Fold this sequence. Notes:
Elements lengths: L1 E4 L6 E4 L9 H14 L1 E4 L7 H9 L20 E3 L24 E8 L7 E5 H6 L3 H7 L3 E4 L2 H4 L5 H10 L3 E4 L1 E3 L6 E3 L6 E4 L4 H13 L7 E4 L6 E5 L3 E5 L9 E7 L6
Parallel strand pairs: 2-3
Antiparallel strand pairs: 1-2, 3-13, 4-15, 5-13, 5-15, 6-12, 6-14, 7-8, 7-11, 9-10
Amino acid sequence: xxxxxxxxxxxxxxxxxxxxxxxxxxxxxxxxxxxxxxxxxxxxxxxxxxxxxxxxxxxxxxxxxxxxxxxxxxxxxxxxxxxxxxxxxxxxxxxxxxxxxxxxxxxxxxxxxxxxxxxxxxxxxxxxxxxxxxxxxxxxxxxxxxxxxxxxxxxxxxxxxxxxxxxxxxxxxxxxxxxxxxxxxxxxxxxxxxxxxxxxxxxxxxxxxxxxxxxxxxxxxxxxxxxxxxxxxxxxxxxxxxxxxxxxxxxxxxxxxxxxxxxxxxxxx
Length: 269
């Protein structure tokens, strides 16, 4: 197995491993170490990785989530299809997956199923490096703040108000620290995102939105980013606790179909 970094802070390609084959504990430990070091790791030429092998690989890192949008009759509920049946496209805003859960995911493993001829790259941002770029006054100001994360903000935004409220009964707004401590590396990371974060606890919108806006923009700084061009057989595995990501929708109207499994995480602190 060989790990080749893509940038100085985030992203690495791993070769010499077949994800469709049973991997040893040592190999899994090496992949996990690379993930912690580089926040997102990429694998090429994984053409043998089908749904069953995808799920099996994900389970080597923990239990797998079932996304609420997964059809109830889908044979493999752990697989989340992006876009679902080719009709939805990924949000083109920087975000971390499922921060609307009380215990957001540890990581996501995404494989390309149908790739467009050009475009459709994914970008990732190192939110620990983004935190490090903040000035000391800003770090002191946001220390201890708690942000609000809302499922309905993305997945119910087109619904009428009464249906949104019913959704919030099922998926209540959750609270997470604005600055999260990574549970394995101990590194501080910015943990608010434009997709799901809707406010700051104890602040009115007039005060909260400028703070959130500034922090959310840190993901857009090229110094903390890497960019991945998808090819048939490509797989990406990223640490949701340390990163945000964004899809380039420059491939439309071509189709781009991905399948994801998501590893259960823990409560941020």
